[in-house]
Amino acid sequence: xxxxxxxxxxxxxxxxxxxxxxxxxxxxxxxxxxxxxxxxxxxxxxxxxxxxxxxxxxxxxxxxxxxxxxxxxxxxxxxxxxxxxxxxxxxxxxxxxxxxxxxxxxxxxxxxxxxxxxxxxxxxxxxxxxxxxxxxxxxxxxxxxxxxxxxxxxxxxxxxxxxxxxxxxxxxxxxxxxxxxxxxxxxxxxxxxxxxxxxxxxxxxxxxxxxxxxxxxxxxxxxxxxxxxxxxxxxxxxxxxxxxxxxxxxxxxxxxxxxxxxxxxxxxxxxxxxxxxxxx
Length: 280
Known about the structure:
Blueprint: E1 8-10, E2 16-18, E3 22-23, H1 31-42, E4 47-49, H2 57-71, E5 79-84, H3 91-105, E6 110-115, H4 123-135, E7 139-145, H5 149-157, E8 165-169, H6 177-185, E9 189-193, H7 205-214, H8 218-228, E10 232-233, H9 240-247, H10 256-263
Parallel strand pairs: 3-4, 4-5, 5-6, 6-7, 7-8, 8-9, 9-10
Antiparallel strand pairs: 1-2
Helix pairs in contact: 1-2, 2-3, 3-4, 7-8
GO molecular function, one term: oxidoreductase activity
Keywords: Oxidoreductase
Pfam family, one: Aldo_ket_red
């Protein structure tokens, strides 16, 4: 499992999604953003994750176009994700938000479109819109982000299509076992955002010890742990050497004992908002 950067997981609708990609949260429009994505494509990344609220879809689109030309690859070889923001949740407003994102990205379709947060009273209407977009062939796969088990259960009560992805905050301090188990048992692929806990785990002694054992960095150990747990991961970086380093995790495998040592670091500690208390 997970022997190369291009390896994919098959979503429950048959779509192939790379296990590993790059995220661009809080990377502003401009050369840094464009270069980061072009670096990633050059070095073999094929999955790029953005969102309307990041405010950088136009730059991502520019980078995709330039990166494809320079690498000599086709659009079909890339997997592009974006997300609808809370203020646009609703049926018509979600359809419009999707079209806006698509135009900014300069694309004919998206590979994955997600509901960014489970805003009560709104996400079911938004899901109906995603189902429409999916049925019309404008997006290859649809899913959610930051959904807890009860949100997924509520959504699936009257959904025509089950989410293919649930993208959540996931790292050694927040292992989300209940969500992970539910998603696995229902054929929903779990995906990690903030897999490195925004750099807060770099000096963690147990992780440092494991990193030394495998002659790897702490981020590489964490990202490998993600993949061996069956979790798609999209670390953010803008520096070329870090983009390369993050992806250099396919030449080793963590032992069962070391996987369990990392699992045991869980404290149910979030660096992002609590999905059950959304006030934005």
